[in-house]
Amino acid sequence: MAKRGVESFDFSFPKNVQGVFAKLEESKVRILVGLENARTQATTARALKNEMELMKEMRRFDFFSF
Could you tell me the pTM of the whole model? Predict the structure, then answer.
């Protein structure tokens, strides 16, 4: 069984198609950055909420300790 040679093609897309692909990739990056920012904000909000609840609990204990 003989192998057939594979020819490589050298072609490029038209400028308008390249522009569409570039915009698509840019939008993917923006989406990922936005998602990461949202995750960071949610994590920060959760940490602040937990700290607030901890401080409330500590005030209750301070009130009963005197």
Answer: 0.58
